[in-house]
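Chain A, query sequence.
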Amino acid sequence: MEKNSGLTLGKTNIYLIAIGFLIIVLGFILMSGSTTIVEFNPDIFSTRRITVAPMVSLFGFAFVIFAILYKPKAKK
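Chain A, predicted structure.
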């Protein structure tokens, strides 16, 4: 019988998932900013918030999917 280590994902997968999570958090940080309810702030429609940040977050989610599916090559 084969010995089961207990974890489905390896150490490399966990590190890659953590990197993907940090990329997602970076995207959400780029999306955030100061907003004031008192007056209209046109900065809410900036390119960073509308285009760049969602693309960074989407890349992070895709990277997490890759990290889960990644299978390291077997050592000889």
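The radius of gyration is 19 Å. The chain has a mean pLDDT of 86.
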